[in-house]
Amino acid sequence: MRAHRNVQIGDVSLSREDIALLVPPCWINDQLITAAFELLRRRLPGDDRLYAVGASEAMMMAHLDDPSQLRLLFEPLKLRTRHLVLLPVSDHDEPDLAGGTHWSLLAFYRSDGVESFFHFDSLSHMNAASAEHLARRVAPLLGTRQTHVVACPTPKQTNGYDCGMYTIQIAEICAAHMGEDVVAIGEIINSEVTPQAIRNRRIAFIRTLQEMLGETAPEAVSPAACAVGGHESAPGSI
Question: Which pLDDT score is estimated for 228?
Answer without folding.
Answer: 45
